[in-house]
């Protein structure tokens, strides 16, 4: 008998289990090995500013979580003795068409006025900062506070920290259903005061949920190239594609966003677009070796906000639907869920993320 059972061993489930382990006995269940689903596929962008068009609550949630990252990484690296390739080099957003230049300028204006760290660069400045960028640029923004982390390293560190803190992890357990304070798998049941559903896009498959949640997979195809370490330093966004350089010498090129159900194939059209965009950003990339191609299934809700909070099933909580921001939102999600379970008032207004918004589904 544990105090808490967490269902799902991705970045969200592992972070919640780790957070709660200081005050509760925690069991984490995963259908496969932990950290092999969507989190494993993520690019690891911690970039709330570069996609934000307003200062709504979701933007604030993302900013709050980013502000927790220094401590999160420091503790993880200390507890696990692993390096998570945390980079604080910032992000360049480049526009080569009039339409994307107008979007960048709109973003710059509100963010600058609101006092956020964003710089409008003369186009020539881009080449000084990233000499291998060859794409002609009309406007460029630099956001020095945007960061990245290597998700697979992060997952290893969180898993290790979970072990250090005493979380019990059982893999190969496919939970079929939940009922009040109970999880069901095969002919077995296990009980706990609190049960957290954190299995991303697979969360909606469980029987017994109330309310049920409308989650749909959004496929992201993504690839990595080998670069000389330091050839690119900053993340770059251009059109619908992005580059994320790792200090270790990988250059991540992402990502498609497809409504393709649970299909996880890589396709000529998907990879083709990414490779074309990568070479448009820098013609040098045409000769970089392709190291790996893969896909991830982002858990998307209709309003693209996560689902955080208690459900109508006694003792059962949702922490899922993080769509494109699971890695970024892991620290804040872990503290929110810990606050709920420990009976504290969560530090964030959870109304926009309430499971009850799907009650009619
Ligand atoms: N967060 C990046 C992506 O979803 O592609």
Approximate shape: globular
Based on CA atoms alone, the radius of gyration comes out at 20 Å
Mean pLDDT, rounded to whole units?
96
Q: List the ligand species.
A: glycine
Distance between the termini: 33 Å
Q: What is the CATH C level class of the largest domain, in words?
A: Alpha Beta
Count all strands and give the number: 18
CATH topology of the largest domain: FAD/NAD(P)-binding domain
How many domains, as an integer?
A: 2
The biggest sheet amounts to: 8 strands, mixed
CATH H-level superfamily of the largest domain: FAD/NAD(P)-binding domain
The proportion of residues in beta strands is 25-35%
The SSE string, one letter per element, is EHEHEHHEHEHEEHEEEEEEEEHEEEH
Overview of this protein structure:
The protein is of the alpha/beta class and 361 residues long. It folds into two domains: 2-79 and 151-215 and 302-358, FAD/NAD(P)-binding domain (3-Layer(bba) Sandwich); 88-147 and 216-300, D-Amino Acid Oxidase, subunit A, domain 2 (D-Amino Acid Oxidase, Chain A, domain 2, 2-Layer Sandwich), CATH 3.30.9. Helices cover 29% and strands 26% of the residues. Strands 1, 2, 8, 9, 10, 11, 17 and 18 form an eight-stranded mixed sheet that branches. An eight-stranded mixed sheet has the order 5-6-4-13-14-15-12-16, with helices on both faces. Strand 1 (2-7), helix 1 (11-20) and strand 2 (26-30) form a beta-alpha-beta unit. Helix 1 runs parallel beside helix 9 (326-342). The chain is globular, with a radius of gyration of 20 Å. The two termini are 33 Å apart. The mean pLDDT is 96. The structure holds glycine. Residues 43, 45, 220, 254-255, 298, 324 line the site of glycine.
């Amino acid at each position: 008998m544990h105090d808490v059972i967490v269902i799902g061993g991705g970045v969200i489930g592992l972070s919640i289990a780790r957070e709660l382990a200081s005050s509760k006995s925690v069991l984490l269940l995963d259908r496969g090995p932990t950290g092999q689903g969507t989190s494993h596929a993520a690019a690891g962008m911690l970039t709330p500013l570069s996609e934000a068009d307003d200062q709504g609550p979701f933007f604030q949630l993302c900013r709050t979580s980013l502000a927790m990252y220094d401590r999160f990484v420091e503790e993880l690296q200390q507890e696990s003795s692993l390096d998570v390739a945390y980079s604080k080099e910032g992000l360049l957003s480049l526009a080569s068409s009039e339409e994307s230049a107008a979007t960048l300028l709109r973003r710059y204006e509100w963010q600058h006025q609101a006092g956020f760290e964003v710089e409008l660069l003369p186009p020539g400045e881009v080449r000084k900062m990233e000499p291998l960028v060859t794409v002609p640029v009309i406007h460029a923004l630099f956001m020095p506070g945007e960061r990245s982390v290597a998700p697979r390293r992060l997952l290893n560190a969180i898993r290790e920290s979970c072990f250090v803190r005493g979380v019990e992890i059982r893999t190969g357990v496919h939970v079929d259903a939940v009922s009040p304070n109970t999880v069901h798998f095969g002919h077995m049941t296990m009980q706990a005061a609190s049960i957290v559903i954190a299995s991303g896009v697979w969360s909606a498959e469980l029987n017994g949920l109330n309310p049920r949640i409308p989650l749909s997979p959004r496929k992201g195809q993504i690839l990595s190239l080998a670069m000389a370490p330091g050839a690119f330093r900053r993340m770059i966004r251009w059109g619908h594609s992005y580059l994320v350089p790792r200090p270790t010498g990988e250059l991540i090129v992402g990502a498609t966003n497809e409504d393709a159900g649970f299909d996880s194939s890589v396709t000529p059209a998907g990879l083709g677009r990414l490779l074309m965009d990568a070479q448009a950003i820098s013609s040098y990339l045409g000769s970089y070796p392709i190291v790996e191609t893969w896909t991830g299934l982002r858990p998307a809700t209709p309003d693209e906000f996560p689902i955080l909070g208690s459900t109508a099933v006694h003792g059962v909580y949702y922490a899922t639907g993080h769509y494109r921001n699971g890695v970024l939102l892991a620290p804040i999600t872990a503290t929110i869920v810990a606050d709920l379970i420990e009976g504290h008032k969560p530090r964030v207004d959870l109304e926009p993320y309430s499971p009850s918004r799907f009650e009619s589904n």
